[in-house]
Design a protein that fits this description.
By secondary structure, this protein is of the alpha/beta class. The chain has 8 helices and 10 strands. The strands form 2 sheets. A 6-stranded mixed beta sheet has the order 6-7-8-3-9-10, sandwiched between helices. Strands 2-1-4-5 form a 4-stranded antiparallel beta sheet, covered by helices on one side. Helix 7 (about 220-240) links the parallel strand 7 (about 210-215) and strand 8. Helix 1 crosses helix 7 (about 220-240) and helix 4 (about 150-160) crosses helix 5. Bound molecules: adenosine-5'-diphosphate (ADP) and magnesium ion.
């Protein structure tokens, strides 16, 4: 949001400097860094958190091959909430998986922060997912036998945060998503919307750089979906995270900073 782009869905010019300057108009990030001391560590200030360049991915081979991604390029500016729209089968999930290091492209490059995800070993990509990138799924992905608080604490446990700090962070995150009163309940004792709130709290607990969400309201009724999308909008701002959200949901399309549309494995240029 450092300058008004002529076309919000158009990727910004590449080769952006690793700017150390603090853009004065970058309000979301300013607020998050000054407010509450929620950050676990200092944040880098690249202009783009995500840069995708010429990514292709084909499943299978020969006559049955599916070209899921056919040369996808875009960038997401730090602190932005970007909606990724496109029909079922257009490649949204494949793209999110590649950006988050769950899958590898056949060609092309993906950068997250200052890491070249496509050049990483399996071990390094695992580390990336533990430290820098968080996922939210349509099916929430919570651990059924753990309470809401324990679920949110999982990534912090893996990160080796001390119990007291972990508890504080968990409580803060549950408060942020409006579930302070439900910390001890298990997922089965929560509504779908509440479960997705827990998943959002868990995703953001470790202060990732990038949040990837794959149709996060796909299982929710429209009113709940609207609340979840608004919550996403709010936390992206307050936590200073960058988010890429695959969705058909107009509730998000309308409040996203920009919208990318996939069509048959390519970004559709409007
Ligand atoms: N693991 C896989 N094996 C084979 N084909 C796949 C696999 N994953 C995705 N595809 C195919 O790739 C295309 C894009 O799928 P996907 O990324 O799931 O689209 P979307 O999330 O937009 O619905 C589809 O044709 C799908 O069938
Ligand atoms: Mg999908």
């Amino acid at each position: 949001m450092s300058e008004p782009a002529e076309n919000p869905s158009e990727p910004k010019g590449r080769g952006a400097p690793w700017t150390e300057e603090r853009g004065t108009s970058d309000e979301g990030r300013e607020r998050s860094e000054e407010g509450m001391g929620r950050r676990v560590g200092p944040r880098r200030r690249e202009e783009d958190t995500v840069a995708v360049e010429g990514v292709t991915r084909t499943f299978g081979s020969g006559r049955t091959a599916t070209r899921a991604l056919r040369g996808v390029s875009f960038a997401v500016q730090s602190g932005q909430l970007v909606a990724l729209r496109g029909r079922s089968g257009s490649g949204k999930t494949t793209l999110l998986n590649i950006v988050g290091g769950l899958d590898r492209p056949d060609s092309g490059r993906v950068r997250v922060g200052d890491s070249d995800v496509t050049a990483m070993s399996d071990q390094e990509r695992l580390r990336l997912r533990r430290t820098s990138v968080a996922f939210i799924f349509q099916s929430f992905g919570l651990i059924p036998i753990l309470s809401a608080a324990e679920n949110v604490g999982v990534p912090l446990r893996i990160a080796g945060l001390a119990p007291k700090k972990r508890e504080e962070r968990v409580r803060l995150m549950l408060d942020i998503v409006g579930l302070g009163e439900h910390a001890r309940q298990r997922p089965g004792e929560l509504s779908g919307g509440q479960q997705q709130r827990v998943a959002i709290a868990r995703a953001l607990a470790g202060s990732p750089q990038l949040l990837l969400a794959d149709e996060p309201t796909g299982q929710l009724d429209s009113e709940t979906a609207k609340q979840i999308m608004r919550l996403l909008r709010t936390v992206v701002q307050s936590e200073g995270v960058t988010a890429l959200v695959a969705t058909h949901d107009p509730n998000l399309i309308n409040i996203a900073d920009s919208v990318l549309e996939l069509e048959d494995g390519k970004i559709k240029t409007p």
